């Protein structure tokens, strides 16, 4: 039975975050400044050296969308061609071209000058080319190039700005409260980060590496004051004013001694290889500020793990997903405030950042969700849905694609991906040929009918007892009998926080939900008044005239009902296509997937009734892998967010309640899971093993095999909330898989340290 789904979430239009890849060379730096000064968000485009050992880690931490090789350096070009960071070659470059009819680059800043807000005060600093601090001023205030488009932009900016000339050897004026050319690039953009702080960067204006460090510190979201190591007297007044403002606004860090004594405000002084100058040390001492020397810039990570760019162009969406729908159309908010959208339009690429909060797929094999792995960008690039679409990449909880700001459309289109393609991409090159087996598809179909993995139906004993008992009766059971069964086998459900009325009506709601979802179908018990034969007829097959299946006589339906020797009451039996074996396979797998989904989203699903929120977890059930010794099936493969990077959970789940070999997790099962885990971790993808049984406890042989697995566990690939953890298996028993929401034993309360904590606590409890 085809079911419609839906997807909901938010879409934000923001600047494309371009990572400028360049060597510390004066010419390359000047080109980078000129490019960044002309485009929206340019102030926050990080500068990255192509040979830096942590380049990709820094780019991921800063949520860079695409790379751009500055000055055509070969090493920079190689970096810019990285999968997941590539601007499609047939769409030109991120900064466009000056040739007519060329593909557009990222959105410029001209539109921000159409109708400036009254509170905006613009200033155009100017200096002599022979000024020894000239290169510093370029990075500090921005600089337009000499090519025609940049010269035109400079003229437009000059018409609304006050010109401020900085004389050679003259003090630098305080311009923090004014909008400079580089400040224009971040109008309508807020850099949102818990880690943003105030720093001082020591700069030799003649050293490109120092200037690169200065730009990177500011692009990483910090409030930055440059301090030149020569001619420092020219910036002392502006530095003192900047520091006093930071003190007033409590924008500096504070140092606290071990005994709790507050030692006062502190500020990081970033320098590549120099001691803190005496004049700077004296200024900080006069203001009561302690200097903390450092040699590197801390990346200001975005709050909530999404993206540090916030704009006012945000819209919530909730759209349906038809079973055969392959494209999801999301309404696109306008770019910038309405006063910045006059009749004049500027074509340029912006980033449409889509974050899903709830997805219920309309088709069991297609999904809009993509794990946040840059390597999966190739799947998105091959199916562009917008024109133009110069890049498309996964992001935590959603996707980011480049779309035209003035495209003449109010929709952003996202192609749905085949779950099988995602799975194959995770294991590309392994030769294992993962595929979902027919039985896995049947299990998935039944789970969808039960409400999906974001429903808690898999964890509710009453649901399965009702279905199991109904499967034994070909003639069906009356409604009250089903309610009695649900009430008898409810165990701890519906949970401790429900009202007395909710607990009293729980069993009835379970049966009604099963009937509503078509899992229990009504049948009419009919008695023949002639031969006294009894038969049950499904409701869709009832007609005005009914023939007895025993003697063949026909009677009006009303007569059959009225002449029945007992009171007529509808019976309910299991819907066609649902077998006991299918239910036995579905229940434990659904329960395991549900608790992961619940833990993943920190939700508390409300049973078969629609939950308040779904999950964005990607799940494949019944997946077969081609191993050298033959095909092996894994019960579930789950991809979920657990920090900035996605984590894969592969599991073996046993639903049998006996201690027979087929109902036990054995060493061979764990060896298969371990081989898959090793393969994924070699590709830089974190992977956890899950072993679950529906029994209340593990058998000794299962415990021994799992304890051997814990003897020498691998270590997490990425820091998790600043800590390194062992990658232990997630071990669950029936008692863990049947806990209602808000109960003390629910997995949500086990640990606040993500999957590492959940795995550790599960081993402590069950091993």
Structural write-up:
With 767 residues, the protein is of the alpha/beta class. It contains 22 helices and 33 strands. Strands 22-29-30-31-32-33 form a six-stranded mixed beta sheet, with helices on both faces. A five-stranded antiparallel beta sheet has the order 14-1-16-19-18. Strands 8, 9, 10, 11 and 12 form a five-stranded mixed beta sheet that branches. Helix 7 links the parallel strand 8 (198-203) and strand 9 (223-228). Helix 12 (438-449) crosses helix 18 (580-601). The two termini are 42 Å apart.
Short structural summary:
This protein has 767 residues and is an alpha/beta fold. 29% of the residues lie in helices and 23% in strands.
Annotate the secondary structure layout:
Layout lengths: L4 E10 L3 E4 L4 H12 L9 E2 L6 H7 L4 E4 L4 H7 L41 E6 L6 H8 L6 H13 E6 L14 H4 L5 E2 L6 E6 L4 H12 L3 E6 L7 H13 L4 E4 L5 E9 L7 H9 L3 E5 L14 E2 L3 E8 L5 E5 L17 E12 L5 E2 L9 H5 L10 E4 L2 E7 L6 E5 L1 E2 H8 L8 E2 L1 H12 L11 H11 L5 E2 H10 L11 H5 L1 H11 L3 E8 L6 E5 L6 E3 L6 E3 H6 L8 E4 L5 H22 L16 E10 L2 E12 L4 E9 L12 H16 L3 E8 L6 H12 L18 E3 L1 H4 L16 H13 L1
Parallel strand pairs: 2-3, 2-4, 5-6, 8-9, 8-11, 11-12, 31-32, 32-33
Antiparallel strand pairs: 1-14, 1-16, 7-13, 10-11, 15-20, 16-19, 17-21, 18-19, 22-29, 23-28, 24-25, 24-28, 26-27, 29-30, 30-31
Helix pairs in contact: 12-18, 13-14, 14-16
């Amino acid at each position: 039975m085809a079911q419609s789904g839906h997807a909901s979430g938010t879409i934000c239009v923001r600047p494309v975050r371009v990572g400028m890849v360049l060597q510390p060379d004066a010419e390359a730096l000047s080109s980078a400044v000129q490019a960044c000064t002309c485009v929206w968000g340019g102030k926050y485009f990080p500068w990255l050296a192509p040979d830096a050992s942590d380049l990709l880690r820094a780019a991921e931490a800063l949520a860079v969308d695409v790379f751009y090789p500055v000055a055509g350096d070969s090493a920079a070009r190689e970096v810019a061609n990285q999968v997941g960071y590539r601007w499609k070659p047939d769409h030109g470059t991120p900064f466009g071209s000056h040739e007519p009819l060329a593909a557009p680059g990222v959105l410029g800043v001209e539109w921000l000058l159409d109708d400036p807000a009254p509170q905006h005060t613009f200033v155009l600093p100017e200096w002599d080319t022979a000024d020894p601090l000239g290169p510093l001023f370029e990075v500090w205030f921005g600089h337009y190039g000499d090519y025609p488009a940049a010269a035109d932009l400079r003229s437009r900016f000059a018409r609304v700005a006050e010109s401020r000339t900085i004389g050679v050897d003259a003090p630098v004026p305080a311009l923090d409260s004014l909008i400079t050319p580089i400040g224009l690039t971040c109008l309508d953009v807020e850099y949102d980060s818990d880690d943003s702080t105030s720093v001082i960067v020591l700069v030799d204006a003649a050293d490109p590496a120092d200037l690169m460090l200065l730009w990177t510190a500011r692009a990483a979201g910090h409030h930055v004051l440059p301090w030149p190591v020569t001619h420092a007297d020219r910036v002392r007044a502006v530095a003192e004013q900047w520091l006093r403002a930071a003190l007033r606004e409590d924008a500096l860090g504070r140092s606290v001694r071990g005994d709790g004594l507050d030692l006062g405000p502190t500020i990081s002084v970033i320098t590549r290889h120099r001691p803190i100058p005496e004049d700077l040390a004296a200024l900080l001492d006069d203001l009561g500020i302690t200097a903390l020397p450092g040699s590197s810039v801390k990346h200001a990570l975005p709050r909530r793990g999404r993206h540090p760019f916030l704009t006012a162009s945000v819209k919530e969406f909730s759209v349906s997903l038809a079973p055969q729908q392959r494209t999801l159309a999301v309404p696109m908010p306008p770019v910038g405030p309405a006063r910045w959208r006059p009749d004049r339009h500027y074509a340029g690429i912006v980033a449409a950042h889509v974050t899903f909060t709830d997805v219920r797929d309309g088709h069991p094999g297609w999904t809009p969700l993509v794990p946040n792995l840059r390597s999966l960008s190739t799947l998105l690039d091959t199916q562009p849905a917008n024109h133009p679409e110069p890049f498309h990449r996964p992001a935590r909880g959603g996707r980011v694609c480049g779309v035209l700001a003035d495209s003449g459309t109010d929709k952003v289109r996202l192609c749905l991906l085949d779950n099988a393609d995602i799975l194959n991409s995770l294991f590309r090159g392994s030769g294992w040929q993962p595929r979902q087996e027919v039985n896995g598809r049947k299990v998935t179909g039944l789970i969808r009918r039960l409400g999906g993995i974001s429903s808690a139906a898999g964890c509710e004993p009453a649901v399965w007892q009702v279905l199991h008992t109904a499967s034994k009766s070909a003639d069906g059971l009356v409604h009250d009998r089903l309610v009695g069964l649900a009430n008898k086998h409810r165990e701890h459900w519906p949970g401790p926080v429900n009202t007395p009325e909710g607990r009293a009506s729980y069993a009835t709601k379970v049966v009604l939900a099963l009937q509503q979802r078509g899992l229990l179908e009504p049948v009419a018990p009919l008695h023949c008044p002639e031969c006294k034969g009894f038969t049950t007829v499904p409701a869709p097959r009832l007609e005005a005239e009914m023939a007895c299946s025993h003697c063949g006589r026909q009677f009006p339906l009303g007569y059959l009902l009225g002449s029945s020797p007992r009171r007529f009451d509808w019976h309910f039996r299991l819907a066609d296509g649902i077998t006991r074996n299918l239910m036995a396979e579905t229940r434990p797998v659904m329960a395991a997937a549900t608790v992961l989904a619940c833990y993943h989203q920190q939700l508390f699903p409300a049973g078969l009734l629609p939950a308040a929120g779904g999950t964005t977890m990607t799940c494949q059930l019944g997946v077969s892998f081609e191993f050298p010794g033959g095909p092996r099936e894994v019960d579930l493969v789950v991809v979920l967010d657990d920090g900035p990077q996605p984590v894969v959970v592969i599991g073996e789940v046993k639903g049998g309640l006996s201690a027979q070999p087929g109902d036990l997790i054995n060493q061979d099962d764990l060896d298969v899971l371990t081989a898959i885990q090793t393969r994924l971790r070699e590709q830089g993808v974190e992977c956890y093993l899950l072993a679950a049984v529906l029994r209340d406890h593990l058998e000794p042989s299962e415990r021994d095999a799992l304890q051997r697995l814990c003897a020498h566990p691998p270590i997490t690939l990425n820091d998790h909330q600043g800590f390194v953890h062992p990658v232990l298996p997630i071990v669950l028993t029936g008692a863990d898989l049947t806990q209602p929401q808000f109960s003390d034993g629910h997995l949500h309360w086990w640990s606040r340290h993500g999957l590492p904590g959940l795995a550790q606590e599960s081993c402590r409890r069950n091993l």
